[in-house]
Amino acid sequence: MAEIKPTASKSVKATSVQPKKSSNLISWIAPVVCIIAGYCIWRFIMGNPNGFDNPDASGGFWPQHKHPRDAFHRIYEGGIIVPLLIGMFLMVIVFSIERYLTIRKALGKGSISDFVRKVQYHLANRNVEAALSECDKQRGSVGNVMKAGLRRYKEMIDEGGLTTEQKVVSIQKEVEEATALELPMLQKNLVFLSTITSVGTLIALLGTVMGMIRSFAALGEEGGAGAAGELAVGISEALYNTALGIGTSALALIMYNVFTTKIDSITYGIDESGFTLTQSFASLYK
Hints:
By secondary structure, the protein is mainly α. The chain has one domain (25-50, 64-284). The protein has 9 helices and 2 strands; from the N terminus they run αββαααααααα. It has helices at residues 25-46, 71-74, 81-107, 112-124, 128-138, 141-157, 164-187, 190-222, 227-284, and strands at 52-54, 66-68. It has a two-stranded antiparallel sheet with strand order 1-2. Helix 3 (81-107) runs antiparallel to helix 8, helix 4 runs antiparallel to helix 5 (128-138) and helix 7 (164-187) runs antiparallel to helix 9. It starts with 24 loop residues before the first helix and ends with a helix.
């Protein structure tokens, strides 16, 4: 009986792409710092005793100043929800700046579509080194993914133990693994903007309701027509919470949509890069 030798399949090298080292420090520190800064703005700037006709001399965590002299100091009487809303507004600004810088770097230099066309041109001329050089110039997420795929592309050209289909699969896998490492960096911290978009209005509504409860409670205790003026003032103060919450949520929604649109363009460029590599190799190195 003839001896049957086991078929040894040529193993494909593991991905050369290394995970990106990133710090979550800003995700933990920024919200706390923003809330503390919001309280300080509310307590010491909006609640500055010089802005009230009847300041509370006792001070403390929440001084009961009365009769603000202008609209800015009247916001102070919106209550303890106001510093939370100010802190959320500061969070929107901080994470918008952080995402802007990150996504701007991820976009790289020049147009993504022009970069892909240049790589396609070099690959059509079988000039992989020139294509790699274009990736170094682009220096963005699309360039990083393309560079990882091109390195495997270059290895597969001289690989004799695999079929063309297996080589294409190897290139595609390399692109997918590189993409899996790039995309989380782009989407990181967007959860803060999306959460503030929905939660900001609800917290503002909570502050408004609390203000209305206090106003009607005061009306019930004092009674008479003279309390109507105090009620009107209390309602206007409570509505400051709504204004702050709606403004914060609107800004968060706008910034979230701007960043997701930018990320979508990068994702589309990455998908186009992977398609370019696999189709080029399949057609040129059959």
